[in-house]
User: What shape does this take?
Amino acid sequence: MKFSGSRITALALIALLMTGSGAVAAVVKFRADLTGGGEVPPVDSKGRGVVTATFDTASRQLTWGGTYSGLTGPVIGAHFHGPVSYVGRTSEQNAPIQVGTPGNLSSGFKSSTTITETQARDLLDGRWYFNIHTNAHQDGEIRGQVVLTGK
Assistant: This one.
């Protein structure tokens, strides 16, 4: 099995988290590019979006924000979903909500929360995606795999 450099970095961070030593901490960056084609099954949408996130491995604090445009209507939900099997940069699976975005979901939304160790491992292992839901597409209008972009 061939792993990309980002994948190897994520696996190393998982190993650090699993040691529980707390000796090494990092702030890790992620990104998800959201499109209707990323939905499972794909959605015919002109919508596009981007979610960026940071994760502090010591505190397990996940902080994120996102922008979008071209959706069929107001956003009714914006969530991290997972875990899914890792299949390159996209997944052909749907998964339950892991972390939701509370409050105002207009473009330019921001939020943060502390996640569990299991959620942290799945996030670092590339097993989460971000999904934006609208009334016209309640299962999701635009979606993108959450990928590691660096430290």
